[in-house]
Amino acid sequence: MTGQGLFLTFEGIDGSGKSTQARRLAEVLIKLGHEVVLTREPGGSPGAEEIRRLVLEGAPDRWSAETEILLFTAARRDHMERTILPALNAGKIVICDRFADSTRMYQGLSRGDLRDLVDQLHKLMIGREPDITLLIDMDPETGLSRAKGRQGTEERFEDFGPELQRKMRAGFLNLAREFPDRFHVVDGNRDADAVARDVADLVQRELRSMA
Ligand code: ADP
Ligand code: TYD
């Protein structure tokens, strides 16, 4: 699975501002004349959006972590086949709100250590990492209160509570150290304009260095 475009992902805890920043970055890049596909996980293709409902709604103990790994990876495979790879092969910039790093964290760390299983299945079924990952780092309590403020039905993971948010924040920062070539940590504890400026500068710098 290869592509010629640029594959960019946003990661971070719930409520850290990923969707806001992904949207704003897309606007900046489109203004600069790039062809951009803005997408998200779980979801991003019709089949994967159906799986999204299965994994994000209902009681926290609805699925075991192992079953979730299979469901998120199935959704991702469909998203890759139908949305991400066609866009990359056409030379576009793909901005994805969450990707495999979220599975490494939420399924790999939340209920015991299943990281190896996540990585094995990823290698077997997905086999591609993003070119650039922007980690929006932020205080877990603030993130949770922002996420809860949205009032939706997709709250299965938020219902695991603040302890999970703290664990995920630390886990994401460790992941940034594990993959220093593609990860960039952005301080999300600021107003959205300041974060967006940092993100846009960073991505434009990367684009120039690739040209
Ligand atoms: P995520 O996709 O990481 O869950 P969102 O972008 O959906 O985060 O943001 C969660 C909530 O917080 C939304 O209501 C959004 O408008 C708000 N928000 C996003 N960024 C900021 C920020 N920098 N400061 C304050 N509120 C923000
Ligand atoms: P998302 O819609 O990005 O939520 P938020 O805007 O609150 O960050 O993702 C929904 C939830 O799905 C989020 O709590 C994290 C979880 N998730 C996983 O557990 N594993 C995964 O592989 C992905 C992509 C998301």
Ions and ligands = adenosine-5'-diphosphate, thymidine-5'-diphosphate
Name the quaternary structure: single chain
Helix content: 40-55%
* CATH first level: Alpha Beta
The fold-level CATH name is Rossmann fold
SS-derived structural category = alpha/beta
Task: Please summarize the sheet with the most strands.
Answer: 5 strands, parallel
Tally of individual domains: 1
Percent of residues in β-strands: 5-15%
- The outline comes out as globular
The CATH architecture name reads 3-Layer(aba) Sandwich
SS elements, strand count: 5
User: What is the element string, with H for helices and E for strands?
Assistant: EHEHHEHHEHHEH
Task: Describe the protein's architecture and organization.
The chain is α/β, with parallel strands linked by helices and 211 residues long. It has helices at 18-31, 46-56, 65-89, 100-109, 115-125, 140-148, 162-178, 192-210, and strands spanning 6-11, 36-40, 93-97, 132-137, 183-187. Adenosine-5'-diphosphate binds at residues 12, 14-20, 146-147, 149-150, 191-192, 195. Keywords: ATP-binding, Kinase, Nucleotide biosynthesis, Nucleotide-binding, Transferase. It is an enzyme of class 2 (transferase).
